[in-house]
Amino acid sequence: MSLEFLNAFKFQKKETLIHNLDPRAKLLFAIIYTISALLFTEIIPLLFIFLSLIPLILIGKLHKEWIKSMRGLSFLFLIIIVLNTFFLSLSFALAMLLRITIMITAFSIFFLTVHPNDLALSLISMKIPYEGAFSFSLAFRFVPTIANEAQNIIDAQQSRGYEMKQSGLINQIKNLFPLLVPLIVCSIRRAFNVAEALESRAFGSKKERTYYYVIHFSLKDWLFTAYLIFFLIIAILIRIQMPDWMLWSLPV
Question: Is residue 123 domain-resident?
C-alpha cells in the first residue's frame, strides 16, 4: 500500500465553492455519504452514490489529489476484491469496493477542503469541549507529517540495503514491520514533545476562551445542507423499497 493515500487528508488551500462552505456542512456531507454507502450492498445504488461525488471533486478542483489517494489504496482494493470474491461473490466484492471508495472519497473531500483551525472551531460550535476539539484537529494536522516521516523511514531502510518494495502479498506484509516500529517510536516521541510544549504554555488553565474569528452558516451552506438531507431521505426510501432493476448482479 502506497503512502500516497495520506495526501487525501492534507488540506489544500484553494478558492472554490466547496472550500468556502462551512466546515459543519462538509462534516455533515461526509457523514451522510458514509451512511448512504452503508445502506446498500448492491452495485447499482452504490454506483449512483459514487457518481454523485464526481461533480463535487471537479468543483473543488481535487481530482489530482483524489486520483493519487485511490492509486495509493490500490493494494487495499485488491485485497477487498480477492477476499470477497473468494468467500462470497464478484458482485459483492465490487459493491464493497464501491462502498469503501465512497467513504474514502467523502472524507477525502472533507479533509482536503477544511483547514485544521476551522475544524476545531466547527467542533467547538457543536458544544464539543475545547480539549477534545483541539486534540482532533491536532491529530488531523499531523497526518501529512506522519506521511513524510514514513517516507523518510522507507528511504533510510532502503539506503541500508533493505528491500521495501518486494512483490507478493506475504512480502508486502513483512515490509510493514521495519516501517511501523520506527514510525510508532517517532510518533510517541512527538506526542511527548507536544504535551510538554502545551504544558509550558499553560494549556487548559482557563476554561473560557476567546477566538480570532467565528464561523457562521451562510445561504449556500443551508442550501447544501438541504440537499444532503434530501439525498439521505431518497437513499433511505430506495433502501426500503428497492426497485428490481437495482438488484442486478454479476454471475458468480
Answer: no
